[in-house]
């Protein structure tokens, strides 16, 4: 194991080497690096030099794997470009979070559509929102943070928090939120607060939607339909009819919620299915203006020219 002095030497020589020093000084710096990192593998040497350049702080963990950046892929819940994780010891947590979101959204949307006269029967949603859509999705969001996916961590953790908070609102007796709100301001106050609550989630989802514009069609479709669901449900509460949420807007929100649920399941399957467990790979349809889309067009043109 290297001493602190050796770490300092490596830090200095790595910075000098990064500055492009040549000649005798360059050879001397190279010899010092080789001396300090003697006994390390090639990967360990590269990691040690990278860490030394950034003083062993948070930037020392910047991924510097060679090769091209990976394209956007809905199954990774990552809309932007990112570098691969070398020797990753974590599984991909995105499909778990997407499935937790999908099932809870699906059931609530079925109730909003009044399928089999289930409108207003929210008891099962409380259990599902606490356990699967809430807790499990929140855990998936924390694991996304561990693998370095800021978007996935933000989205899954936030929607996990949404389902937990929604379950708290619906829980009778224990939290008594609905009864206290109605006592303080009446039924209209409750509807207005719930409408603003849902519109707040509409705004948040719109911010995430912007980040998917250079991603895949499947990924964009998920956030677009979810955004529309929040919008129509928010309007349903803010523009009630006969003292209850507007039926037409509620059902429109339920319809978009169904689409969002199946889009989430689709993206989850795209992250699970690979050549080791499936006979086919799920297409996610990259936008033509995305990096992957442009690369595909360039490859097609080169193939036409070569032919």
UniProtKB/TrEMBL annotation:
**Mostly located where?**
membrane
Per UniProt, what is the membrane topology? Multi-pass membrane protein
Bilayer-crossing regions = 90-111, 123-143, 150-170, 190-210, 217-238
Signal peptide (from-to): none
Output the InterPro entries linked to this UniProt entry: AceTr, Gpr1/Fun34/SatP-like, GPR1_FUN34_YAAH
**Subcellular location(s) of the protein:** Membrane
> Which family, according to UniProt?
Belongs to the acetate uptake transporter (AceTr) (TC 2.A.96) family.
What is the protein name given in its UniProt record? Meiotically up-regulated protein 86 protein
